[in-house]
Amino acid sequence: MATGDNETVFLPLEDVESEHCALIVDKGLAQVKGIRTHKVELNNQRAAITVSDAEVVSEAVKAVKDLGYGVTTVKHAFPVLGMTCASCAGSVESMAKHQPGVVSASVNFATGNLSIEYLPNMTDALKLQKAVQAIGYDLLVTDERAQQETLETIHEEKFKALKTKTFWAVLLSLPVVVIGMFMMDIPYANQMMWAFATPVVLWLGKDFFVNAWKQARHRSANMDTLVALSTGIAYLFSVFNMLFADFWHQRGLHAHVYFEAAAVIVAFILLGKLLEEKAKGNTSSAIKKLIGLQPKTVTVIQPDGTEIQTPIEAIAVGDTILVKPGEKIAVDGLVVSGNSYVDESMLSGEPVPVWKAEHEKVFAGTINQKGSFRFKAVKVGKDTMLAQIIKMVQDAQGSKAPVQKLVDKIAGVFVPMVMGIAILTFMLWLSLGGDNGLVQGLLAAVTVLVIACPCALGLATPTAIMVGVGKGAENGILIKDAESLELAKKVNAIVLDKTGTITEGKPVVTAVKWLNNDQYAQDVLFSIEKQSEHPLAEAVVKHLEEATKSVSLSAFESITGKGARAAYNNETYWVGNKKLLTENHISIADELQQEADGWGRESRTVIWFADSHKALAVIAIADKIKETSVAAIKQMQAMGIALYMLTGDNEATAKAIAEQTGIGHYKAEVLPQHKADFVKELQQQGKVVAMVGDGINDSTALATADVSIAMGKGSDIAMDVAKMTIISSDLTKIPQAITLSKQTVATIKQNLFWAFIYNLIGIPIAAGILYPINGFLLNPMIAGAAMALSSVSVVGNSLRLKWKK
């Protein structure tokens, strides 16, 4: 692309309504030269392709459209300012063609316009304007909606068009049904039905035929193929019978017409698509809500103190922003003045507003309450937590659950198999049906083509995943992929980190016992802890900062899982756990040991400070157990899950925390690599293990576990590794996530069951299997209604997830 390196481009797809359609598009993209990798995400209605040349994007869009599907693009003509010659136009055109997401671009020097087609999810008018300005020209940009609004507008227009088509199809089909069922004996009945049915089949249903033809050109077939074949055969057969009725009369047969079947099938399928589109729109409501959390403009405080309204896209890191009562916070930042309560429920799922004062973090998408404050922008655009959440949810909704692999294989052969069954049905009726074999064979074949529904099969898994991931996001549970959502229901062992997971992760020093109250030693301790990034070190720094000063240390070293050491004035000093002192043969006075033992029994963490010979001080640090931890642990135990607590803390503190929370299995003084080893031990025992942690030291264990869960208030590394993130760091969200997994998997199974059963029962009945038994033949109109409703029922069943508790 612009850099010349491989870059991922997302093509927003249209009319890709089933997994079978997705497979067709995927195969088509595989044929495009220059595409390195390709993946079609049915849930997100997009294709992710990796390309090294911008021109490949245009070829990819063309390939998708040639297959009969659409790619959402925006076409616009922008006036270019500053061009004085044809070479200027060539420069602008060349630059535009190499912008990410641009499908085509051309500059007309005579009119001064840049005519451009681009992917609205990859670029927009403001980005194009900046690119043009970078080479010395300018683009006159009219106000455009934001990217998501552009996509929504296109989809709304498409939905309105579908609504109009459905309305006319139903309206024109009604008289055909009335005449066909009750008024066949009136003069010119066939001609009147023909007149009403023709616009329904050939005008309102023309997209089925156009797309079927495109599929046929590429030796492929999809849902449109089935609809086009069934309605086309019924319509043409009826026209032939009406115009050449004598052909049948000479053979002693009545020339039946089936205009009502052809028209009603189109009307029902359009109605089904309309209901399906509406329902599918509801499955992505979580994303829409998240995207809608950002305001369009903000109040930026200028260096001279004046306030100006600025578009959110123009906010830069370091800007000072004023937030008034009731306003949405636009970007992530740090409060610099003022205070207020902020509603963070849309990100964390927690209903209680959070107090924000100076130096507190605020996040994009959250809502200020009654107070007002100013904050400095720290993360803007795609770097904000809200943007990352939106991306994570989109990626998760686009991922495939393991069960989908089987469905993909079936969907890949479904349409050809149905066409084969339809031909076989016709041949059997022709040979065994007697005088009416031809007519009934054609009707049975049409009915088979109509009733078969690959869409229901293709929608069964992705719609459930989409709703499940969305529901999780609304409740502050971020799920990275469908696999972890499917696997979470099987979890029967959970390993919990202590600090920041079971406890609040906000340690404070509650007591210090010095061997000799030496100011010199206090300054050294303060200086060592100031260089450490451990939360316990931060607590010590806060406790000592007012009464001590920094000294210049040398040879500072952090010792993973144990503490730190440093040198000062030719003496080595140690800060950490007792194991660190024991390993270095440092003596501990009885009075310090007795104090430490007492604190340990009170579930306080003990930190030792020593020189190279003896312990100089012992420090007690308390980290409160979260209010919800005990209840969450009881919930998980009630679900039959075995719980284990691992901590680098001392034995006494670990035992006290375990007793207070009701955890039966715990290990103290565990190093980071040993956490991963413990997870492997449980897995070797046949357990499905979830690891829950919040720190960098938990990342290896998180990566090892079957299901990894990070606390959202912990480190970024832990969240990057984990497959699930609890934004609020509330443990009660874990049983919620497991319950959501069970509900989602149950919904997938229900959807697949009904989709398979519908086709397994419906196709043989449509073929006429009951005719020898009781003379029953399924009416093609009823088959059309059943097919239309099958997809809607699957999507509707997935939507039930939203309201389950």
Question: How are the SSEs ordered, and which strands pair?
Answer:
Layout (H helix, E strand, L loop, with lengths): L6 E8 L4 H12 L4 E7 L4 E6 L2 H13 L3 E2 L2 E8 L4 H12 L4 E7 L4 E6 L6 H10 L3 E2 L7 H36 L6 H16 L1 H12 L5 H21 L1 H5 L9 H25 L1 H7 L5 E5 L5 E5 L8 E4 L8 E7 L1 E4 L1 H4 L5 E3 L4 E2 L4 E2 L4 E7 L5 H14 L5 H29 L4 H15 L2 H21 L2 E3 L2 H6 L5 E5 L10 E7 L4 H13 L3 H10 L9 E6 L3 E6 L2 E6 L1 H6 L6 H12 L3 E6 L4 E8 L6 H10 L3 E5 L4 H11 L3 E3 L4 H13 L4 E5 L5 H6 L2 E5 L4 H6 L2 E3 L6 H35 L3 H4 L5 H20 L6
Parallel strand pairs: 19-26, 19-28, 26-27, 28-29, 29-30
Antiparallel strand pairs: 1-3, 1-4, 2-3, 5-7, 5-8, 6-7, 9-10, 9-11, 11-17, 12-15, 12-17, 13-14, 13-16, 18-30, 20-25, 21-22, 22-23, 23-24, 24-25
Helix pairs in contact: 1-14, 5-6, 5-10, 6-8, 6-10, 7-8, 8-10, 8-15, 10-29, 13-16, 14-15, 14-16, 15-27, 15-29, 16-27, 16-29, 18-19, 21-23, 27-29
What can you tell me about this protein's structure?
- The chain has 29 helices and 30 strands.
- The model is unreliable at 143-147 (pLDDT under 50).
- The strands form six sheets. A seven-stranded mixed sheet has the order 18-30-29-28-19-26-27, with helices on both faces.
- The protein is elongated and about 120 Å long.
- The protein is 50% helix and 19% strand.
- With 805 residues, it is α+β, with helices and mostly antiparallel strands.
